[in-house]
Amino acid sequence: MDTKNLVIEIPYEIISEAKFPPKKVKELVKQELALHFYQEGILSFGNARRLAEMDKLSFHFLLGERKIERNYDLDDYQADQEEVEQWLKK
C-alpha cells in the first residue's frame, strides 16, 4: 500500500509562542490534532491514535487526562467483546 503524507509548514514564531519543548514539537502537535479531530468526530479512535503515534492504552489515558469523552457505541462494544473472546481462547 502506497502511503501519502500531508506536510504542513508552521512558522517557527508560532511554535515558539506555544512553548512546546523543541524536541517534542512534532509529537505534541500530532497529539493535539489527533485529540481535536477525535473529539469533533472527524477521526475514529483508531485513526486518531495512529495520527498521535500512540498505542491504544496510551491514547485512552491521554483522552482521560484531557477529559475527552470516548465515542464508544454498541458496534465498538461488540468488536471489543469479540476481541476479548479470541484472546481468552489463546
Notes on the structure:
With about 90 residues, the protein is mainly alpha-helical. It has one domain. It is about 60% helix and about 0% strand. It has five helices and no strands. Helix 2 packs antiparallel against helix 3. It is elongated, with a radius of gyration of 16 Å. It starts with 11 loop residues before the first helix and ends with a helix. About 10% of the residues are buried.
Structural class: mainly alpha
Share of β-strand residues: under 5%
**In angstroms, what is the radius of gyration?**
16 Å
How many strands in all?
0
* Nearest-integer average pLDDT: 89
* Low-confidence sequence ranges: none
General form: elongated
Number of helical regions: 5
What's the arrangement of secondary structure elements?
Layout: H1 12-18, H2 25-39, H3 45-51, H4 56-65, H5 74-89
Distinctive features:
90 residues, mainly alpha
Concise overview:
The chain has 5 helices and no strands.
